[in-house]
Amino acid sequence: MTPLLVVIAGPTAVGKTQLCVQVAQHFNTEIISADSRQFYKELAIGTAKPTFQEMQNVKHHFVNFLSIQQNYNVNEFEKEALVVLNKLFKQHQIVILTGGSGLFIDALCDGFDDDLPGADEQLRAELETLYQKYGIEILQKKLNQLDPKFYQKIDLNNIKRLTRAIEVCMITGKPYSELRKGTKQNRPFNLLKIALNRNREELFERINLRVEKMIQEGLLNEVKSVLVDKDKNALKTVGYSELFDFLEDKCTFEQAITNIKINTRRYAKKQINWFSKDTDYQWFHPDEINEIINLITITIN
């Protein structure tokens, strides 16, 4: 019987972790995390990782396995996660893949269309910020560093092509000029894609409460502990960037908290849009756990 990878995706703060633990316990299986910021050991509070108890009850893979000092890209995740999946499927009929990083989920489910990933909204926003602040020259210089061969071919005044080339280089860890068009990869497992969502008011309230809880749990101290590494890619993320601004006297503490809430809500909307484009996803409210378990049971049988 072909094994089944159950994807449980959705926006930040929707309630993926708790539901996935319950589903994994029901089917006596394990969880692979595709949340690219939960990979890093140093980032605990600001990434809303599974609690110690949740990870004791159900084994989680790809949580706390990297240091922010390490470079890691989606291609590496795809290869390593496939190896882990192969081992897990020898013990379990189903395995759960969860997270809000759509790019990493897509990489494991389908591979890239010949190693060319889709857009990474967060990275693209960071490049747009660089462009707005320093002009097109900073992007031209960055592409020349990442892929000097393509730098010689591209129209250096075409901001869209320039940004896309940099994005692909940074996501894949490979020069854009070395990648060529291809097709999605066949996988030795079946897929069931589930997405979680709540009404907007409910989701946004959960986001606001989560941010306040993170602050109470000591997010500022966590951010201070990694301030020296603030230029690392792992730290260019919501919750850390805003508090770096506060620590550098660019805004008040209160404004930083407000900005975290605003930017997290924006990120959640982008996540929803990402998953909505994939018509294979079946959408549920996180409270519909019985319906989700029934769907998985039917799919297995």
3D architecture notes:
The chain is of the alpha/beta class. It has two domains: 4-111 and 184-300, Rossmann fold; 121-178, Histone, subunit A (Orthogonal Bundle). The protein is built from 13 helices and six strands. It has helices spanning 16-26, 52-57, 74-88, 102-110, 121-134, 136-146, 148-151, 159-172, 200-216, 219-225, 241-247, 253-276, 289-300, and strands spanning 4-9, 31-33, 60-61, 94-99, 190-196, 282-284. The protein has a six-stranded parallel beta sheet with strand order 3-2-4-1-5-6, sandwiched between helices. Helix 2 links the parallel strand 2 (31-33) and strand 3 (60-61). Helix 3 packs across helix 4 (102-110), helix 9 (200-216) packs across helix 12 (253-276) and helix 11 (241-247) runs antiparallel to helix 12 (253-276). The termini are close together.
Report the top-level CATH class of the largest domain: Alpha Beta
**Radius of gyration, in angstroms, nearest whole number:** 20 Å
CA-based shape: globular
Mean pLDDT: 91
Using the 3D structure, state the CATH architecture of the largest domain.
Answer: 3-Layer(aba) Sandwich
Measured by DSSP, the beta-strand proportion falls in 5-15%
Q: Which stretches are poorly predicted, pLDDT < 50 over at least 5 residues? A: none
Quickly count the helices: 13
In the CATH scheme, what's the topology name of the largest domain?
Answer: Rossmann fold
Strand order of the largest sheet: 3-2-4-1-5-6
CATH superfamily of the largest domain: P-loop containing nucleotide triphosphate hydrolases
**How many structural domains in the coordinates?**
2
Q: Biggest sheet: strands, sense, closure?
A: 6 strands, parallel
Tally of extended strands? Answer: 6
The helix/strand class is alpha/beta
Order of helices and strands: EHEHEHEHHHHHEHHHHEH
Estimated helix fraction: 40-55%
Query: Kindly, what is the distance between the CA atoms of the first and last residues, rounded to a whole number of angstroms?
Result: 10 Å
